[in-house]
Protein 1
Amino acid sequence: MSLLEIIRSVIISISTNKLRVFLTSLGIIVGAFTIILVIGIGKGSEAEVAEQFGRLNAGTIMVAPGREQGGPGASVQSDKLDQDDLELIQECPSVDSATMIINGGAAITYYNTSYSTMVAGAMADYLVLNNLELDYGTNITDEDSVKRHKVAIIGADLAEMFFGEDKSSALGQSISVNGKKYEVIGVLRYLGDSAGGFSPDESVIVPYTVAEKYVIGSRTRPTITALAVDMENVDAAIEEITAALTVNHADTIDNFQIRDAGSMLEAAQETSKTMTTLLVSVAAIVLLVAGIGIMNVMFVSVKERTREIGILKAIGARKRDILLQFLFEAVLLSTVGGFIGGVLSYIVVPFLGFFEITILPTLNGALLAVLFSAITGTFFGYYPAAKAAALKPIEALRQE
C-alpha cells in the first residue's frame, strides 16, 4: 500500500465513526487546552511580578522590622526603625541614598466622595528612590516635614476619581485625610501594578512627620529604602546596613528583613515558575488519561476490523502497512485534538480577562501542547497498531 492509500483509509475510518472519534479526542482537547492556559497563566504571573518590581532599581535594598516580640510586661529591646537608624544607613560607604517610609490606612474625602486607601508618610527623596514621577505639581520638601505642612501628593487614579479627567485641576484643592484638610501639591504619573501592597495610583503621600503625628500615629513601624552606589556593591551595602542596625538593635538584629529588589524579584519569579510546573504536571496527567482512552478505543477498533485486516493482508498489504494505518489514526486523533484544544484556549483567553486573570498565551505553549498530544497518540497508539499488524491473515479472515 502506498502512503496516500494508507492516509485515505485512515480518513475513511475516522469519518465513519465521528462520535467515537470526538469522544476519544475529548481528553486530548481538554489536556492541550489546559497546558496552553496553564503556561499562559504562568507567563502572565511572571510578567506581573516583573512589572510590580519594575519601578524598583535592581540596587534597591528594603529594610523592614520583624514582628513585635514579648508578651505583656516583657522587656524586649525595640526593633522599630527610627531617624538614628536612617542616618547610620545613609553614612554607609556602599549606600548612595536612603529614605524612611510609613504606611497606613485612611479615609480620603473630597466633598461628597469618600475613599478608603493607603497613606504613605514620606521624605523628599521618596519619589526618586522609588522611580515615581509627577505628572503635575511639585514634590514634598524637607521643609514640609520639618514644619509639618499639611500638603499631599495623590495618585493618578485617585485624582481622576475626585477631579475627573483633567487631573491638573487637583492642584491647590483641599482633600480631607481622616477629617483634616490637606492641600494637593502634586499628582503622580500613572504607574499600574505595584509591589508590596502599596499602589501609588490610588494612594496619598504626605510629609513623614505629618503622617506620623496626624494620620498613622507613632506606633507604626517604619521601613527604610536604600540604594546601593552600584550593582556590584549591593552585597557590601547589605552587610554595612546590617552592621549599622546592630549599633542600636544588637539583641534584635535577626528580626530585621534586609533584602535587595533583585533577590525579591528572583524569588517571586521562582515561586511563579514552580506553580506553573505543578499545573503543567496536572495537565500532563490529563493527557496521560486521554492517551489510555485512545489505546482502549484503538484496541476496540482492531477487534472490530479484524476481518478487514485479514482481507488487506490477503491482497498483499504488508505488516508495515497495517501498523502505519492504525498508528496514523491514533496520531491524527491526538494531534487534531491538541490543535482544537489550542484554538479553544485562544478563544477563551479574552473572556478570562473579566475575572482579572492575566494570561499571556505563547506560541511555545501552543506548540508544546500539540507536541505532547502527538507524542501521547504515538505512544499509546503503537501497541494496538502493533497487535493489528501481527494478526495472521487466515485467523483474521475467520473472525466474524
Protein 2
Amino acid sequence: MKKNLIFTALLLMGLLGCSETQLDYMTLHKNALVVDLHSDTPMRMRRGFDFAVRDTSGHMDIPRLQEGGIDLQVLACFVSTDMPAEECRPRVDEMIDSIEAQVGRNQDKIEICRTAAEAENIICEGKIAAFIGIENGVAIHNDIDNLLHFYDRGVRYLTLTHTASSDWCISSADTNPAFHGLTAFGKEVVGKMNEIGMIIDLSHAHTSAVEEVLKITTDPVIASHSCVHAICPHDRNLTDDQIMAIAKNGGVIGINFYNGYLSPGGEYGRIADSLWGLHRTEIDSIRELYQEDREKRREAIGPIYKAVNKELANIDIDVGTVVDHIDHIVKLVGPDYVGLGSDFDGIPTLPNGLKDCSLVPNITKELMARGYSQLDIEKILGLNFMRVFEKVCDN
C-alpha cells in the first residue's frame, strides 16, 4: 500500500520544509503515487488480450504495471478519424466493455475510478486505479448526447482530435485547416465537458485549437501524451508558448515515450521518412487493393511496419531523453505542470530502458540522478495530474 496519500503528500512535505531523507530510487518510486496519462491497451483488450497475464508482445499488463509501481493507469479508447461515423460509438463501447470485463475478472488488483477520491481509495487498498479515456473526438459523432453517454460509462477525458482534423477540431497534422481551431460545435463540446466534469485533452490538437480551447475553458486541461517542440520539432509536440499557456491554465503535460517525438532535432523523423520512402509504392498498392477493408489493409501492411520499426529501434534514445523533455518544461514553467504520458501499446518504438511499463522506475532513477527533490519527483510522477483530476472531476 502506498504510504503517500494523493492530497496529503504535498501538504506534509510543505509542513516539513521539504526536509527529505535520502531514499534509493526504488523506495522513492514505490512510495510515490505514479500516474501514466495515456496508453492504448484497450485496443488489445478488444482483440482478446488477457490483461492479467504477463505478455511480452505488448507494453502493458497487470503484472508489469505492478512491477513498474504504476498506481493510476489511463486506458484510452482510440478511434481513427477515417472510421465510418456510425461505427465510432459502438467501437468505443466495445472497448469500454472490454475494460470492464478485464477489471471485473481482477477486482483484487484493479478497479475503475471516476473521481480522484475514488482513485485514492483504490490505491490505498493496494490496487491499480483504471481511468477510462477516449482518444479522438470523432467518437462522439458530432452529438453531445454521445459525449454524455460516454461520461455515464465512466469516461473522464476526451482527446479532442487525432492525426487528421474532425468536423469540429483541427489536428496538429493539418497543414491546410478548414477553420480556426474549433467550430461552434467544438466550442459547445468544450463547454459541456467543463459543465459535466470531463478533462479536456489537447494532445494532437493544432496550435489554433489549443488557443481556442484555452480562451474558453473554465477548467485546467491536459496534453496527455505530448513532448517538447524545442527539442524535437514535430507537429505533435508543444511549443514553449503552448507549454506556458497550459501552465497558466493550471494544466499538465504528460511526456510521451515515443522515440519519434523525443528525438533531439527530429533525427528519428528524417530516418523514418527515408525508410518509409523505400516502401511507399508497395504501401500505396496495398491501400488501393483493400480500400474497403481496414482489417485486411492493416494485416497486409503489418510486415512492412514491423521491418521499418525494427530499423528505427536501433536509433539511440534512452530514458535520459525523456527526462530532457521533463527538464525543459520544469526550467520553463516549474515542476507543477509536467507528468508522464507513455503512449504504451500505441507506439512502435520506445527508448532504451523504457521498453514496457515495468521499467518506469528508471525515470525516477534519472530524475534523482539529476538532483530533483523528492517533492518535485512526486509531483512529476503523479501529484500534478491528481490535482487536475480532483479539480475537474470531483466537483
